[in-house]
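lol ok so funny story. i was supposed to be doing the assay writeup but got distracted and ended up predicting the structure for this chain instead. priorities right. anyway since i did it might as well share w the group, maybe its usefull for someone
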Amino acid sequence: MEIALQPNVLSALGVTDSTDACLTQDSSGNTSVCSNPDEYFFYDGVHPASRMHYLWGVAAAVLTRDPNATIDTSDALKYIATFAINQSDREDNIIVDGLTPSESGFVPPASSTDTATDSATDSTGEYSTEADTSSVYTSSAYPTSVAPPTKCH
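and the output, tada:
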């Protein structure tokens, strides 16, 4: 996502270092973590840091719901503002807090574009991109319609 490297997107996210990793390791194997990982594009040499990961997650949700969507710099800036990605940290984020009504309304409804590649069809025999979400957890902390797993003995 080259858009994420645009200076105005990095600035809107509060990312001040787009080249170095927050987690570093010296030649003897000792590791150190930067004081504010939210200001970094990368957490380590491979993984995006939390705000970048959050932005990509929102973009992935949009593209999953509408495979024909295009995402440009203005869209990335809208996602950052709508989801307050620049304010997120390990204690205040979408996983901990869940979606607000305004956030959940931002992701488009499922696309009518035929994206199925198997024999999953709806009642009319057409491919369906709709999924049953009745058993999807509505909170990151507690499921509402699925019983929690039982303890193994």
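Confidence is low (pLDDT under 50) at residues 112-119, 134-153. Strands lie at 17-21, 23-25, 31-33, 40-42.
back to the writeup now i swear
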